[in-house]
Write a structure and sequence with these properties.
This protein is of the alpha+beta class. It has 10 helices and 8 strands. The chain is globular and about 55 Å long.
Length: 306
C-alpha cells in the first residue's frame, strides 16, 4: 500500500468513527442515508460504498442491528417496559419492534426476557459448534458454582469511583486481526515517546457485548491510556471514558481465560445486587503475557454500574 493509499484509508476510517459515535448517540432518531452521510462529509452514494466496505454491512442493516442489540441489553438489565424500549430505539410502535426483534433473535422480546438469556447469545446457540446441546438447568447451576469458586481463587474484586479517562484509540471490528490494531497503535505512539512512561497502559473498550453481538461484528477500540498530551490523527481517535462507579476485577490469567474472567465478573455483579449502567465495559492490561514464564498477564476488567 502506498503512502497516499494509507493516508486515504486513515481518513476514511476517521470519518466512519464519527459516524459510529453519531449513530450510538442517536439510535432513537431518523438515521437515513442522506442525513448520516453528512456526518462523514461524503455524498450519500460514496458514503454507502465506503461504509459497507469498512463494516461489511449496509447503513440500514447496521442501524437495525444496533437498535435490536441495544434493546436486548435493556431487556436483560433494565427494569423498563417493552413499549418504552421500543420507543427508546426509534420504533413507531411495539408491533414493529416485536417483528424486527423476532426476525433477529427468533423469539419475541417478552420470550427473550423470560427465558435464560444465555440461550440467545450469538456465540452460544442452542446447538454448539461441536454439536452439544445447551446444558440443562442443573448442569448450568453446577457450571455457575464452579465459576464462582474459580473467581474467588483468581480475582480481586472491588467497587470504586473511576476518573474520566482520555485515551488514544484505534477502532477495530471483529475478533480477527486484533494484533494488527495493537501494532498500529504502538507504531503511532513510539516515535512520540508515549510508551516511555511507566503509567502508559494498553487496553480495549467494548461498544458491543459478545453475549449479544456476533463475534465478527463486535466493535471495540484498542487504546493507549497515557498521562501525556496527544492529538488525534488519521486512524488514531480520542476515546473518552466518563468518570463513574465501576466494578473492577483484577485477574492474573492466560489470554484464553479472558472470556471466562468477564463472565465471572458479570456473575459477581448480579450476585451482589449491582446493575450495569449505560456506559461500556473496558479492560486495561497491567503486564504482558509474553514476558511471563506461564504466559499469564495481569488485567483489570471494568464494568460501569449504577
Amino acid at each position: 500500500m502506498t503512502e497516499t493509499e494509507k493516508h486515504l484509508q486513515a481518513d476514511y476510517q476517521s470519518r466512519i468513527n464519527r459516524v459510529f459515535e453519531f449513530i450510538d448517540e442517536n439510535l432513537e432518531s431518523d438515521l437515513r442515508l442522506s442525513k448520516v452521510s453528512e456526518i462523514a462529509f461524503f455524498s450519500p452514494f460514496h458514503f454507502h460504498r465506503v461504509f459497507k466496505f469498512i463494516t461489511g454491512e449496509t447503513l440500514n442493516g447496521y442501524v437495525m442491528r444496533r437498535r435490536i442489540e441495544k434493546s436486548s441489553s435493556d431487556l436483560l438489565h433494565k427494569n423498563i417496559s417493552t413499549s418504552e424500549i421500543a420507543h427508546k430505539y426509534g420504533f413507531s410502535d411495539i408491533s414493529s419492534y416485536s417483528r424486527a426483534f423476532k426476525k433477529f433473535y427468533g423469539v419475541s422480546p417478552t420470550e427473550f426476557k423470560r427465558q435464560n438469556p444465555n440461550r440467545h447469545s450469538k456465540i452460544r446457540q442452542l446447538e454448539s459448534k461441536n454439536g452439544q446441546e445447551y446444558p440443562e438447568h442443573e448442569k448450568y447451576i453446577c457450571i455457575i458454582n464452579d465459576l464462582k469458586k474459580w473467581t474467588e481463587m483468581n480475582a480481586k474484586i472491588e467497587v470504586r469511583e473511576t476518573p474520566e479517562l482520555r485515551l488514544a484509540g484505534v477502532t477495530h471490528v471483529g475478533v480477527t486481526g486484533i494484533e494488527t490494531a495493537f501494532e498500529k497503535l504502538t507504531r503511532w505512539a513510539m516515535p512520540k515517546g508515549l510508551l516511555n512512561n511507566s503509567e502508559a497502559k494498553m487496553g480495549r473498550f467494548f461498544y458491543d457485548s459478545f453475549k449479544i453481538t456476533a463475534p465478527d461484528k463486535v466493535r471495540m477500540s484498542i487504546f493507549l491510556a497515557t498521562n501525556e498530551p496527544f492529538e488525534a490523527e488519521g486512524e488514531i481517535n480520542t476515546v473518552t471514558i466518563k468518570e463513574g462507579k465501576c466494578i473492577v476485577g483484577r485477574f492474573e490469567i492466560t489470554p484464553v481465560e479472558l472470556e471466562k474472567s468477564w463472565t465471572s465478573l458479570f456473575v459477581w455483579m448480579n450476585d451482589n445486587g449491582y446493575k450495569k449502567s449505560n456506559e461500556n465495559p473496558f479492560e486495561i492490561y497491567q503486564s504482558d503475557y509474553r514476558e511471563h514464564p506461564e504466559n499469564k498477564f495481569v488485567v483489570d476488567l471494568y464494568i460501569p454500574v449504577e
